[in-house]
Amino acid sequence: MGFNKIFIDKLVYPYMEKHKANKIRQYIRELKHSDKLSSQQIYKLQRGKLKKLLLHCIDNVPAYEEFKDLRGVINKDPYEGLRQISVLTKEKFLIDHDRYISKTVDKNTLIHNNTGGSTGEPVKFYLDRYTVEHYEAARWRSLSWWGIEPSDPSVMIWGSPIELSKASDIKYKLKERFLKNRIILPAYDINSKKMNEYVDKINKFKPKYIYGYASALYAFSKILMDKNIYVNIPLKGVLSTAETLHDYQRKAIERAFNCPVINEYGARDGGIIAYQCPKGHMHISAENLVLEIVDIQTKKPVEIGNRGLVLVTDLNNFAMPRLRYQLGDMAIISNKETQCEINLPILESIEGREDEMFISKDGKMVHGHYWNHIARNMSSIKQFQFIQHSNEKATLKVVKSSKFKQKDIDNFVEEIENVLGVEEVNVKYMKDIPTSNSGKIRYAIREFDID
To answer: What is the rounded CA–CA span in Å between residue 348 and residue 335?
Structure first.
């Protein structure tokens, strides 16, 4: 056991629990107990939490006060009460999102957050510490199935230029390294020339697991195998998140790192939705949320085993509840019997949220999230879509916001040219950007194969 792990376990967490009232470890213990309950007991637990949340919403959340007449239905059958509440799309939420803040909380005490914008327009929202700690507990409970603990060292192959620019700050480095026991490698700068340097960092740091975007992990793995470079430490797993994990990606990552790939399905505005167990099942965090699968057109529930849109109701979010929140993903809940000691329900398949890796003229790979992080910090852009046609040509589609400034777009184009080395970026201003079959706007598209 490393010194930093002992430091976190024996000093950091106890300090946070005593002085910050942090309850993550308590929630982890509760979840470790509940996932071993029978299906009927889990259903009863979920039902009670849903009833409490719905009654809170109709009494204290302006956006849901119109459903006060459902009180009797909610008391009798909270699931039926939930189904009688309108589906909440991101577009509807954005119209007046402050109406979803509970009257029982002070907005100034809430934690501001926003989505990555995989549906084309980032969603800004608020969380309280109670919600965030349940998100964290759900992740660590699931990773415990693999023998991974919160204080274990990790390497993140991550993509936020905002986060990584902060790495120059000493305080930020110390927090990541000593309070979170992790180091970050840039997913938007995966370069074969730097691979020896990256692998040396991994081998010296000796992480228990690696965490990153599916496409970035896949690109990293391909370079490792092409250059015959090895990570010389035993890993408990490589954790894939943020995107659809394809079978070919899983196989390549497992070969490159010589360990299992663990699939995480979550969303910044939905929490940890499902996690893969060692037997390969994607277990839904049923104690923390109600997951509905509905028809893409009618928004009516589909039969178990059928494909449909994902709706999420976070059972722990009383500060800014979003009931029947439509993420934009497509999924299927399994109707098959499984021999698994974890009794949480299972997702059979997940679709959507697929990013691309881009390639510059000099062979450097850039993760698609790079463009999203640039766009979401420009008030001029309501929606965008970036398409790389070839090494020389690209198109940037933009839906202007009410705060549009041409300088922002010029800076965006300049960044594309500098990073990818393309010679021609055609800017198209659009009234809207069409969605894909899954209901999402693909904000980053590469139209040619990477050799």
So the answer is: 8
* 263, 240 Cβ separation under 8 angstroms: yes
Least Cα distance to 321 among 136, 12, 116, 100 occurs for: 100
Q: Quote the tokens at residue 152.
A: 């274990």
199 neighbors 235 (Cβ within 8 angstroms): no
Tokens 């700068």 label which residue? 189
Contact 324, 313 (CB under 8 A): yes
SS3 content of the chain, % helix, strand, coil (to 5): 40, 25, 35
- Residue 297 pLDDT class (50, 70, 90 cuts): confident
Closest by CA to 394, choosing from 367, 433, 369, 421, is: 421
**pLDDT (average), residues 385-398:** 93
Spatial neighbors of 141 by CB under 8 A, at least 6 apart, are 28, 31, 32, 35
- What pLDDT is recorded for position 393? 93
Residue 384: Cβ within 10 Å count:
26
Q: How confident is the model at residue 451 (pLDDT cuts 50, 70, 90)?
A: low
Q: CA separation (Å) from 434 to 166, 294, 295, 385, 439? A: 35, 21, 20, 10, 9
Nearest to 250 by CA among 242, 403, 259: 259
Cα-Cα end-to-end distance for the chain: 42
Cβ-Cβ contacts under 8 Å for 175 (sequence gap 6 or more)? none
Read off the tokens for 393.
């040509």
Instruction: Report helix, strand or coil for 100.
Output: helix
Q: Which of 385, 401, 451, 397 is nearest to 427 (CA)?
A: 397
β strands within 62-158, DSSP E: 111-114, 124-127, 154-158
Residues in the chain: 451
For the cut 90, the answer to whether the pLDDT of residue 181 exceeds it is yes
d(CA 105, CA 181): 33
Picking from 210, 209, 170, the residue whose alpha carbon sits closest to that of residue 187 is 210
What confidence score (pLDDT) does residue 437 get?
46
pLDDT for position 250? 95
Taking residue 349's Cβ as centre, other Cβ atoms within 10 Å add up to 12
* Nearest Cα residue to 156 out of 96, 220, 105, 101: 220
Beta strand 325-333 with 346-351 is: antiparallel
Answer whether 332's CB lies under 8 Å from 309's CB. Answer: no
Residue 300 contacts residue 360 (beta carbons within 8 Å): no
